[in-house]
Amino acid sequence: MSGASTGCSGGSLTFLTAPNGVTLAYVESFGSGELVESPKRVVELLQRYDAVRGLALPECESMELVRKYLEEYR
User: Fold this and answer.
1) Which one of 31, 36, 39, 49 has the lowest number of neighbouring Cβ atoms within 10 Å?
2) pLDDT, tens digit, for every residue of 31-63?
3) Any residues with CB less than 8 A from the CB of 47 and at least 6 apart, and which?
């Protein structure tokens, strides 16, 4: 299986694609984890992930923002 992981508030979300092409999601929080096998729920999670990812800064801008904050807190 291959996977893509993303941090979520209070846990993580990992997408796993099996050799047969089926995609699953694993949602993990501080106290538990859940393997999501329902295609409908997996699609919903993928859509949410894509929406959040679309709001993220490009890598170079993210790095610059982190550098800026580090300078301010020194």
Assistant:
1) 31
2) 899 999 999 999 999 999 999 999 999 999 999
3) none
8 pLDDT exceeds 60?
no
Sheet of strand 33-36: strand arrangement: 2-8, 11-17, 23-29, 33-36
Dihedral sign for Cα atoms in the order 11, 62, 2, 16: positive
Q: Where do the H-state alpha helices sit in 2-58?
A: 39-55
Q: How far is CA 33 from the centre of its chain?
A: 14
Look up the pTM and report it: 0.70
Cα 31 to Cα 11: distance, rounded to the nearest angstrom: 9
